[in-house]
Amino acid sequence: MDNIKYYVAVASSDKIVVNKHFGRADTFHIYGIAEDNSYKYIEKIELTPICEGGNHDENKLVKNAEELSMCRYVIVSRIGPGASSVLASKGITAMEIPDLIDNAINKVISYDEIQDLFK
């Protein structure tokens, strides 16, 4: 599976379920999605959480978005509009899908296929 079409970052503490809020996530698991829509685990990225007791550090937010900029999608359990907007400015679509990672990735693959119909 060397023909990676795009990457997806998943906020998860256990690599089983999407269970982390974007602002509190310190671990993102990166998956590569191939042309045939199969996917494989690539790597774990550790970032500094941006949420500090309800306040957000804008510099950390931008830095984390840059660290994830190789991804087309970020899958999280929750994300605020500000963080979602910063990710969008880097070409990343944030998806709130609190589910098993396999289910969440398959939902994103389906979404991406539908988006391709409009190109």
What does this structure look like?
This protein is an alpha/beta fold. The mean pLDDT is 94. The chain is globular and about 40 Å long. The two termini are 25 Å apart. A hairpin with a 4-residue loop joins strand 2 and strand 3 (39-46). 30% of the residues lie in helices and 30% in strands. The strands form two sheets. Strands 3-2-1-6-7 form a five-stranded mixed beta sheet, with helices on both faces. Strands 4-5 form a two-stranded antiparallel sheet.
How large, in whole angstroms, is the Cα Rg?
Answer: 14 Å
Spatial order of strands in the largest sheet: 3-2-1-6-7
How many strand segments?
Answer: 7
Question: What is the overall pLDDT average?
Answer: 94
Sheet of most strands: 5 strands, mixed
What distance separates the N and C termini? 25 Å
* Helical segment count: 3
Supply the helix-strand structural class.
alpha/beta
**Shape verdict:** globular
The CATH architecture assignment turns out to be 2-Layer Sandwich
Helix content: 25-40%
Q: Give the CATH class.
A: Alpha Beta
Strand content: 25-35%
Let me know the CATH homologous superfamily.
Dinitrogenase iron-molybdenum cofactor biosynthesis domain
- Stretches where pLDDT falls below 50 for ≥5 residues? none
Number of domains: 1
CATH topology label: Nucleotidyltransferase, domain 5
List the helices and strands in order: EEEEEHEHEH
